[in-house]
Amino acid sequence: MRTIDLFAGCGGLSLGFQNAGFTILAAIDNWEPAVKVYRENFAHPIYNLDLESEESLKFITSMKPEMIIGGPPCQDFSSAGKRDETLGRADLTISYADTVIAANAEWFVMENVERIMKSHILKKALYLLKNAGYGVSYQILDASYCGIPQTRKRLFIVGHKHSPDNFLLPYFNKNLSSKPMTLFDYFDNTLGIEYYYRHPRSYARRGIFSIHEPSPTIRGVNRPIPKGYTKHEGDPVDISKNIRPLTTKERSLIQTFPEDFIFHGSKTDLEQMIGNAVPVKLGEYVARCINEYVKDRKQNRHIEAAQLEFSC
Length: 312
Hints:
By secondary structure, this protein is α/β, with parallel strands linked by helices. It has helices at 12-19, 32-41, 54-62, 91-103, 120-131, 169-174, 183-187, 248-254, 267-276, 280-311; strands spanning 2-6, 23-29, 46-48, 67-70, 107-113, 135-142, 153-160, 195-197, 208-210. The strands form two sheets. Strands 3-2-1-4-5-7-6 form a seven-stranded mixed β-sheet, sandwiched between helices. A two-stranded antiparallel ribbon has the order 8-9. It starts with a strand and ends with a helix.
């Protein structure tokens, strides 16, 4: 399926869909550090464009995509951000919907933090999309039940022009694993650690985690252990010389980027783009659910056609 990735970042969603057999025509983003990393890893082009510009809209429409995927910036909705929809980035959710509609794409996939469900911006975007004829399925997926060793909850909204609402829910649900994936499940002992430090958003939360549980959400910051860190009641062990933060590379692997994926740039930029990325295998999970739905839909059509022919 001919697909364009909007707000592509360094390419987690693109790579997931590509792995599932989708043809990525192009990607669009306007953060140059992420654009440079994307170019190093994909054969198809990425363009540095502002999605709110008329130029961008005309360009995307001219490519006639069958599917548009992407995650509009989530900082205005995220628990890690200011949670203020008036800051301007939330408007990109409307721009995303307008682009899908203008391009007349048969499919769209929108990814965001679960908190956006409470947003009037999302309600407006969904109204526009449904009014344009899209049946819409949405699901909050916990990555650790989708083959990723990380507790990361994200909302996926999938729209299709020729399907009813909630058409993908059975596929989202039936393909989930029965238990969350831990770091040990994914890496075995290759990380060379049993416990590690992940800087908490506040010291009311624990900072030490075990490889025998899913990683907490990989965020856009990766700080060292502060001097004088006091053990939290939830920490499984005391701070010691054996406890360290995860490296930038380890964080990318937890986001299920492949070992040979090329990251270059400043440490600050890399940590941010890795933390903002859609885990590759989470994108792949959603893409494979769509593939399964399309296959079943075609098969049901063939059965119905055969039954009609027989009855005639």
